[in-house]
Structures are given as C-alpha cells and as structure tokens.
Amino acid sequence: MPELLSISSYVDCHGCSLCLLPCPMWRAHRDIMFSPQGIAKAMQSEASAEDLRESVSSCIMCGACDTVCPENIDLIGMIAQMWSEIALPKAMLEPEVAPSPFVMSCDASVQAQIGKDDLYVIDAAPFHVHYAERVTHYDDLRKNTGCSMNLDLNRVAIPTGTGSAAEALEKFDVKKQVQWLVQGRDFKRVIVENRADMDVLREITGKPVFCISELLGVVVGSRGEHAAS
After folding, report:
1. Which of 2-6, 27-31, 83-87 is most confident?
2. From 165, 176, 188, 212, which residue has the greatest number of CB atoms within 10 Å?
3. Containing domain of residue 40, as a range?
4. What gap in Å lies between CA 44 and CA 201, rounded to an integer?
5. Cα(24)–Cα(14) distance, rounded to whole angstroms?
6. How confident is the model at residue 110 (pLDDT cuts 50, 70, 90)?
7. Residue 94 has what pLDDT?
8. Are 41 and 47 in contact (CB under 8 A)?
9. φ/ψ of residue 192, rounded to 5
10. Spatial CA neighbour of 223 closest among 209, 202, 203
C-alpha cells in the first residue's frame, strides 16, 4: 500500500497561488488577503485570527483549495481553527444522508435518467473531502451521460456557497456565485446533490431543478414532469 502524504501546515506555504484558482472567496474579492494563500502568509507573519476576521469569515469552507495545494497543507483545517478562535458561528450544513448523493449517483437507474440537456451540480464540500476517491467517478458520469457539471478545467467542483456560514453572515453572495456558475452553459434541467441548492438555482436559471434523491424510482422529464417508474 502506498504511503499516505503527510498533512502540512500554514508554515509550509511558499505562495505558489494555485489555491487562488478555484477559490470563490478570491474570485469575489480579487484581494490576496481573501484567499487561503493570503491567510497562510499573514499567519507566517504572526497575524492573529482576530486580525484576519474579515477574510476568515468570508470563506465558504468548500475545500477546493485543499485539492490543488502542492504542499498538501490542510488549508480548510487552518481556517476552521481560526473560525473557532474568534467564535464565529458554524455553518448549518446537513451531513450527508444515507445513501449519500454520491452513492445515488452510482445507481444505474439514476444514471439512466441523466442526459446531455442536464446540468449536474455536485455538492462541492463532500466531493473535495473525498476528492481522490470520487473525481474519476464524476468524470465517467459526465462522459457516459453527456451532462454538463460544475467542474472547472482542473476537475475541481465550483461551489454555490448555499448554506455556508459566510452566506449567513452576509460575507458571500450566493446569487452572484450561481450566476457565474451557470453563465454560458446550455442546459434544460438542473440536477443537484444538495437540496439546499434547489431554490437559488431555480430562481437564477428559470429551469426545472431536481434533487438527485428524486431520481431514485422516478422518471423525470426535461419539463419538470415526473411519474413513478
């Protein structure tokens, strides 16, 4: 069995800026301090969690940065620790249900109902936590069904930020993020893994939106019609 890579800390950040590429916080602010790199470098200069309150509270904890860091730094763990130190409220996110949306997406009957006219929105946080085990599956799902997905060119999931503590604190604009996510995409229906994403995607796109759990034992039409199979 190959040896697992050890987890590094913020002191190992050398400022390569790769974490900026998938970071929604960076995209929204275009300010290095609103990025995992900026936070890590500030901590190297002995900045406290309180000093970094504004940038830390703007992070939606999607985990995209962890998937691209070449030093294998636990960037989300670093930010979560600072959240705790300055007593910011935790995100009210529901844990993955059993079966999880990922498991549902592996079901052949569910896959048979996904097609080229669908935008499939992966729940970003659990995907990034299990990135190594799940990325190939979603690549295959996209190829086999022809659907589009919220994956960027680096196969990192573009998050919506829905349900994050940053959204609750009004530090992150979910509507702007979703508008950017769907911009230029051609689809007739949206399938989401996280039920919390349904309302904002329905509002922004004006298209039928379904949770993947609704595809279990159900035939769903592109105009929003569904009937028991």
Report:
1. 27-31
2. 212
3. 10-85
4. 39
5. 21
6. very high
7. 54
8. no
9. -115, 150
10. 209
pLDDT tens digits for 67-80?
999 999 999 999 99
Tokens of 124: 């970003």
Is the pTM for the entire model greater than 0.85? yes
Q: Which two tokens stand for residue 59?
A: 């992070």
Q: Which of 29, 61, 85 is the last residue of a domain?
A: 85
Mean pLDDT of 104-109: 95
For strands 226-228 and 118-121, give the pairing. unpaired
Do 117 and 219 lie in one domain? The reply is yes
For residues 211 and 220, the answer to whether their CB atoms sit within 8 Å is: no
Q: Give bridge partners of residue 191 from the DSSP assignment.
A: 120, 210
User: Which string of b and e fits 171-210 if b means at least 16 CB within 10 Å?
Assistant: bbebeebbeebbeeeebbbbbbbbbbbbebbeebbebbbb
CATH for 107: 3.40.50
The residue type found at 213 is: S
Other CB atoms within a 10 A radius of the CB of residue 123 amount to 26
Residues 173 and 63 in one domain: no
Instruction: Kindly write down the DSSP assignment for every residue of 18-46, as one continuous string.
Output: GGGTT-HHHHHH--TTSSHHHHHHHHHTT
Same domain, 39 and 71: yes
Eight-state DSSP code of residue 226: E
Distance separating alpha carbons of residues 37 and 29, to the nearest angstrom: 14
Residue 1 has pLDDT above 50, yes or no: no
Q: How confident is the model at residue 96 (pLDDT cuts 50, 70, 90)?
A: low
According to DSSP, the residues that pair with 119 across neighbouring strands are 148, 190
Least confident of 91-95, 118-122, 145-149, 199-203: 91-95
